[in-house]
Amino acid sequence: MTPGSRQRKPDRSRRPAPRKEGPRKPPAQDPARRAAFDALRAISERDAYVNLILPELLRKRGVTGRDAALATELTYGTARAQGLLDEIIAACLDRPLSKVDKVVLDALRIGAYQLLRTRIPPHAAVTSAVDLVREVAGSHVAGFVNAVLRNVAEKDEAAWLDQLAPDPQTDPIGNLALRTAHPRWVARSFAESLGDRGAELAAALGADDARPAVHLLARPGEISADELAAITGGDVAPYSPYGVHLPSGTGDLADSEPIRERLAIVQDEGSQLVAIAAANAPVEGTDQRWLDLCAGPGGKAVVLGSLAAISGATLDAVEDLPHRATLVEQATDGLPVTVHTVDGRDPGLEPGYDRVLLDAPCSGLGSLRRRPESRWRRQPSDLPQLTKLQGELLASAFRLVRSGGVVTYVVCSPHLAETEGVFGEAVRRAKAEVVDARELFPGVPQLGDGPFVQLWPHRHGTDAMFCAVARAR
């Protein structure tokens, strides 16, 4: 120590500045969120179906357990709520939503969904979305995503809806459409079919926003519904004699024993019911030649083929797309089914069928809970082309059925243009006799005044299948 200097005593009252405690980053490897993000990108870029692309991604990447459950929740939830999420994200932007890069937008949607509809902590939701976009799009957009999601996090979903939803008094359909994450035109079509703009419309739209149970078909002649329920731990379906329900979130069943052993297939109970109705509709005279005019991918052909085998009938199954025809062949292997890869509008088959099932291509608005991305993919402009095709296929069906035989018309949609409209016109042209389809759905409640049957998720727990039957004269 130099002369005149003083030794400074340590100030023990001072402490080192505390380290800033920020949100902990998720692990560098985040397989659940990355799988969800890649599934959403496939939906946006390639029009992929979430129920097909996500299980494939999870299998390829070995994502299982809690990670698989989270990936499923984020993928289905984000796809289902996309329109609502976009409205909220747009309210937090200083530019039109259309100007946001599509990759960045999908990351924002996943982040916003976690903030608004999960119990994931806000800091984890924001940080995980920032990390995702940094990985796939670069660091230059990370700050933008961070800022937008912090704005989203300032309100919960209810507060955002109070701010953005139309007035329920002056625009009840618009209000319900946003609150249940549906396009307005879809909500309007449901209202017209139900004849209701209030509580029942809200229930119908709300049912699309809930994750459905998994439905299995116990293949007729192979296993009973009671036996299948015992094997799977499920419950016997309330209406279909061949149906079993498993809880939502059961996961990928492709490798389960009943599926692998061809004792069961995954099939909505509503699809089972309309196929059973087609097999049971009363015909006059012989009942040996059956036809499935639009058979791909083969679910209803399995029902009809199995019941045909029991009754001694045969089934011709028509599918014009080769890869879907192959699926029908695989699904019906061992059944009295002949697959024809031809156009159902002019299949070149010999007329005289005793019964014809036409499960026509449609908008798919009845299966939005299982295919959540479809509500944003379909447009009103799709309907004229679809109804034209449906009418042409119905005309073919009536040419192929014999007098006294029956045509069963099925679509997975409640839209009046695709249901009563197109069927009524076809029956008028064919001079056929409409059969009350309600009699073919024993034990199923709330079927209305007939003669058609419209199933609903909120009433019956099924997809919104439409079924109409006519006897040729």
Question: Which runs of at least 5 residues are low in confidence (pLDDT < 50)?
Answer: 1-27
Count every helix, treating DSSP H or I runs of 4 or more residues as helices.
Answer: 20
Structural class: alpha/beta
Corresponding CATH architecture of the largest domain:
3-Layer(aba) Sandwich
Query: What is CATH's topology name of the largest domain?
Result: Rossmann fold
By CATH reckoning, the class of the largest domain would read: Alpha Beta
Radius of gyration, in Å, reads 27 Å
DSSP strand tally: 12
The number of distinct structural domains comes to 4
Q: Superfamily at the CATH H level of the largest domain?
A: Vaccinia Virus protein VP39
How far apart, in Å, are the first and last alpha carbons?
119 Å
Q: Mean pLDDT across all residues, rounded?
A: 92
β-strand amount: 5-15%
Structural notes for this entry:
Strand 6 (314-318), helix 16 (322-331) and strand 7 (337-340) form a beta-alpha-beta unit. Mean pLDDT is 92; it is low at 1-27. The chain is an alpha/beta fold. The protein folds into four domains: 31-157, NusB-like (N-utilizing Substance Protein B Homolog, Chain A), CATH 1.10.940; 170-208, no CATH class; 214-266; 269-471, Vaccinia Virus protein VP39 (Rossmann fold), CATH 3.40.50. It has helices at residues 31-46, 50-61, 65-80, 82-91, 102-117, 122-137, 142-152, 157-164, 172-179, 184-194, 199-208, 225-232, 257-260, 269-280, 299-311, 322-331, 374-377, 383-400, 417-430, 457-460, and strands at 214-218, 235-236, 243-246, 264-266, 289-292, 314-318, 337-340, 353-359, 401-411, 433-435, 453-454, 466-471. The strands form two sheets. Strands 5, 6, 7, 8, 9, 10, 11 and 12 form an eight-stranded mixed β-sheet that branches.
